[in-house]
Every structure is written in structure tokens, then in C-alpha cells.
Amino acid sequence: MIVDHILNASCYFDVHPRFKKAFNFLTSIDFIACDEGIYEVDDNIKMIVSVNTLKNKRDAPLETHQKYIDIHIPISQPESFGWKSAKMLEKNSENYNTEKDYELFPDHPTSYFIVQPKEFAIFLSNDAHAPLIGTGELKKIIFKILID
Predict the structure, then answer these.
(1) 86: domain CATH number?
(2) Which among 45, 58, 65, 70 counts the fewest CB atoms within 10 Å?
(3) Residue range 78-126, pLDDT digits in tens
(4) How far is CA 80 from the centre of its chain?
């Protein structure tokens, strides 16, 4: 997991070869004014803009992904996340959804953190994360980066 401000995104371009293209796309648009929807950056990168009702910690399950790396960027307000190493997860609560690339787990996170607007959180395949924790509605961006 990586958490930082979007102004420092270039520090992470070497982590995955597609990060540079995703962050360059983000800086080339008015992402604060983007409408909800899925934007195809290319065949391997999608940007999803969504508005979600935030939930309390106990209603936010941990999830993992096998095919995609997530980059979460809250826009309208801070977003809290839970985190736990995927290697420490216990029994899953649902089978892996191959179409949507996620698996949910009933475990409790080992830590929580807050990401402010214009900051980002990158979740790799070894990061179980519980997004959308807080109160009210949140507009956010999620990049889905194909791992290969």
C-alpha cells in the first residue's frame, strides 16, 4: 500500500509501468468536474468516477483484487480505509468474482487511515482494503491498472 499526495505521484512511476500513464491522464483533465462513469485510458487502464454513500467501519468489508491494482483518489471529502495484509486474511465471505475482480473477507482490518482530497492510496494485490468509510457522500476516482 502506498499513500501520498498527487503532486508526488512521479515518485511511484517505477512501481508499475502503467502508473505514469494513469497519473498523466489524471493531470490532463479537470478530474474534480468529471461526470460519473468509466473512462478508458487505454486497454489496460480504466478510470472510474463514482459518487458513493460512505459507511461505518463494521459495514465495510475487506476486499482484494487479483487482476488489477487500485488507485483511490477522494475528490469531495476525506475517505477512511481499513487495511490488512492479504497474507493474514482468514476465510473469505464470498468466492472470488472473476468478472468484477474482487473477493470479500470478514476479517477486521489491522489498521485504519484517512486519505484527503488530492491524495491517493494505491492497493496492490497483497493489500486487503476496506474503502468508503466515513459519513455522507463521496465523489472519488478509482484507477484500475491491469497487473499482467
Answers:
(1) 2.60.120.370
(2) 58
(3) 999 999 999 999 876 668 899 999 999 999 999 999 999 999 999 999 9
(4) 11
**Residues of the domain holding 37:** 2-146
9-47 tens-digit pLDDT: 999 999 999 999 999 999 999 988 999 999 999 999 999
Nearest to 79 by CA among 50, 46, 103: 50
- Cβ neighbour number for residue 121 with a 10 Å cutoff: 23
3-state helix, strand, coil in the chain (%, to 5): 15, 45, 40
Q: Decide: residue 52, CB within 10 A, 0-12 exposed, 13-18 middle, 19+ buried.
A: middle
Three-state secondary structure call for residue 104: strand
Q: How far is CA 14 from CA 9, 94, 115, 121, 148, in A?
A: 10, 33, 22, 16, 15
Amino acid of residue 39: Y
User: What total number of domains does the chain contain?
Assistant: 1
How far apart are the two ends of the chain, measured CA to CA in Å? 18
